[in-house]
Amino acid sequence: MTQDKVYVAGHLGMVGSAIVRALAARGTGNLVTRTHAQLDLVDQAAVRAFFAAERPTRVVLAAAKVGGIHANDTFPADFIYRNLMIEANVIDAAFRAGVGKLLFLGSSCIYPRLAPQPMREDALLTGPLEPTNEPYAIAKIAGIKLCESYNRQYGVDYRSVMPTNLYGPGDNYHPENSHVIPALIRRFHEAKANARPAVTVWGTGTPLREFLHVDDLAAACLHVMDLDRGTYQRHTQPMLGHVNVGSGAEISIRDLAALVARTVGYAGEIVFDATRPDGTPRKLMDSSRIAALGWRPTIGLEQGLRQTYAAFLQAAAAQASTGTQT
């Protein structure tokens, strides 16, 4: 991949920036990126013009509108529309520009709410989705099917990886619209700084979740992209393209909250608000396919949380020095 011209869509996001770091570390010098201000991926004409001008040979589609339970439940139209348009525009424009290999980043929420655990790739479309993020999940399923359909009709090599819940440097720490780990880090950090006696966490604390450090995901993405087509297809048929990427370990939200509190150094009480939604009861990915393809994660949750909190503090210090806010 070092000789390819690689376009990373969404390079400023948590996943995209991790992939850019991984590509740079291996010596990929011909990287193409665009900010949202430079290229709105919802604008079909602009996306087609970009691909026609740049002619990348490989594409990593990490751009997406993302958020936690509150954001998904509050802005369902935004989540389904923007993600559908981004996927359709980028995948079709890539094909029109002659891109032979593309990697699409999906999400574990594509699987049914009550899918058998751990969730296998063939659980897709076998039952109802989690209502709180159904619009986002449907958009991500559409992205998978776009890749599969272009592969079947045109013989291109467009692959999809389905990461479990991610965390790490570059995450979104918005007080209402973030995912669980950044939300907990911010909440405990602020409680510690303000000597608050208790922190309230949404839900009962009983749901089980699996987490993967974003740098592990980036390594998995490059591994999948590098595989020869025959090897990849032998391990993904009959699904025609998507592979789970997870850590294989799960933890309850209650235990996660306690672990984040220890990482931050917060010693107050943790209160669970059972009137708030829990989301899916359990989400554990079956990552045996990518393991068979030769990849395994290397960053444990405790180590990853320490690194993530250090990055949070560094970003907060930098923002404080410029007068901006997280």
Automatic annotation (TrEMBL):
Superkingdom of this entry's organism? Answer: Bacteria
Recorded catalytic activity of this chain's protein: GDP-beta-L-fucose + NADP(+) = GDP-4-dehydro-alpha-D-rhamnose + NADPH + H(+)
Per the record's keyword annotation, is Endoplasmic reticulum included, yes or no?
no
Residues binding NADP(+) are 10-16, 105-108, 140, 163-166, 179
Annotated metabolic or biological route of this protein: Nucleotide-sugar biosynthesis; GDP-L-fucose biosynthesis via de novo pathway; GDP-L-fucose from GDP-alpha-D-mannose: step 2/2
Question: Is the NAD keyword given for this protein?
Answer: no
Catalytic activity, EC: 1.1.1.271
Its top-level enzyme class, in one word, is oxidoreductase
- GO MF, any single term: NADP+ binding
Which residues of this UniProt protein bind substrate? Answer: R187, W202, R209, D278
Q: Domain named NAD-dependent epimerase/dehydratase: which ranges?
A: 6-228
A Pfam family that this protein carries is Epimerase
Please indicate which residues carry the site annotation Important for catalytic activity.
S107, C109
Record's keyword terms, sorted? Isomerase, Multifunctional enzyme, NADP, Oxidoreductase
User: Which residue positions are annotated as catalytic?
Assistant: Y136 (proton donor/acceptor)
Q: What does this protein do?
A: Catalyzes the two-step NADP-dependent conversion of GDP-4-dehydro-6-deoxy-D-mannose to GDP-fucose, involving an epimerase and a reductase reaction.
Q: Which family does it belong to?
A: Belongs to the NAD(P)-dependent epimerase/dehydratase family. Fucose synthase subfamily.
Q: List the protein's name.
A: GDP-L-fucose synthase
Question: Which organism was this protein described from?
Answer: Ramlibacter lithotrophicus
Q: What is the lineage of its organism?
A: Bacteria, Pseudomonadati, Pseudomonadota, Betaproteobacteria, Burkholderiales
Supply the gene name.
fcl
